[in-house]
Write a structure and sequence with these properties.
single chain, 5-stranded mixed β-sheet
């Protein structure tokens, strides 16, 4: 399958999150990443923009009644940068998780612009 986007991870936040998950969840996360890489239009149940965050998205993973989120953003349109992930236990995405993702996104651009 041809890639329409490239997905990379910033530092090791995503990898650390991934390693903590059961194999089934890891496989599901890889499927979502593959969808982000290969689908021209990624469905909102896979990838959703977070309102008022200046370009932050969450990749959405669900297995049974369990939900995980991985924050990411687009750099130059075709590059998707993965940040931290977490297990979602509440209806709303916890503000501290969003704050952490935003600070990682800022860090990414600071490093890039050096």
């Amino acid at each position: 399958m041809e890639k329409v986007r490239e997905v990379i991870a910033f530092k090791n936040y995503f990898e650390n999150f991934l390693k903590q998950q059961p194999k089934k969840v890891q496989n599901k996360i890889f499927k979502i990443i593959e969808a982000i890489e290969t689908l021209e239009k990624v469905p909102a149940n896979y990838l959703k923009a977070l309102q008022g965050t200046n370009g932050l998205f969450e990749a959405r993973i669900q297995l049974g009644s369990n939900i995980w989120r991985v924050f990411c953003f687009f750099d130059k349109g075709k590059l998707v940068v993965l940040l931290n992930g977490f297990t979602k236990k509440t209806q709303k995405t916890p503000p501290n998780e969003i704050a952490k993702a935003l600070s990682l996104m800022n860090e990414y651009y600071e490093q890039k612009n050096k």
